[in-house]
Specification:
Layout: H1 2-34, H2 42-61, H3 68-85, H4 87-90, H5 99-116, H6 118-129, H7 132-151, H8 154-166, H9 174-211
Helix pairs in contact: 1-9, 2-3, 2-9, 3-5, 3-6, 7-9, 8-9
Length: about 210
């Protein structure tokens, strides 16, 4: 009975924590609209912060020894995404300059995983897929790479804008709504990825204790 109540309590606290996270994301979106900044928006700053924190969490999880090869690849993937999000700043150097550090991060992670061993890394990836955190990580990455891109499809927003005009509504240019919607979807995806890697870190720590 006591253990059951503790389990339910942890589940409730998890619900509250994620709910507060969502409230915070809405706050970032609203504040970004009210207080625009140069180069990037505060929503994009939030994306970069979640990405950087996710990379740090994954790298710190390497100490557990769990799925080392897979974690290296995950850190590399998130690192490439982080570099990509900095394109607005790197374009000040040369347009498209972000591709070079992104390739460097990618090759470094691939080489590090190769040093672990191809067979071992494949096994580690299989172990990662079996974790509870992957249940959240997988749809979060899909939201980032697929949903947010489709949600930001110009044709869809132009059609919505046209339908609103035909209905007699006075609305601003669809471009502003398109950009805001896409960036907000990306922010949510990055936040969920961060939650997923936190869960992964906890799982890896538990597995390390069990082995000890």
């Amino acid at each position: 009975m006591t253990e059951d109540l503790k389990t339910l309590g942890r589940a409730f606290m998890g619900f509250v924590a994620v709910s507060l996270l969502y409230v915070g994301l809405i706050g970032i979106n609203y504040f970004s609209l009210k207080h625009p900044v140069a180069v990037e928006s505060m929503v994009e700053w939030g994306q970069e912060a979640f990405l950087l924190l996710s990379v740090a969490v994954v790298l710190s999880t390497l100490k557990s020894g769990f799925a080392r090869g897979a974690l290296i690849l995950v850190a590399g993937f998130l690192g490439v995404l982080f570099v990509r999000e900095l394109d607005a700043y790197m374009d000040e150097i040369v347009h498209g300059f972000w591709k070079w550090p992104a390739v460097l991060v990618l090759l470094t992670s691939l080489f590090a995983a190769y040093k672990v061993g191809v067979k071992e890394t494949v096994h580690d990836l299989a172990q990662l897929v079996k974790t509870k955190s992957f249940v959240l990580l997988c749809p979060s990455v899909a939201m980032l790479l697929v949903y947010s891109r489709l949600f930001g499809f110009k044709g869809m927003w132009a059609s919505v804008h046209g339908a609103a005009i035909e209905a007699g509504h006075q609305v601003a240019s669809w471009g502003a709504f398109k950009s805001f919607g896409e960036e907000a979807a990306e922010l949510l995806a990055y936040a969920l990825i961060f939650v997923a890697v936190l869960v992964l870190k906890c799982e890896a720590g538990c597995k390390a204790k069990c082995k000890a």
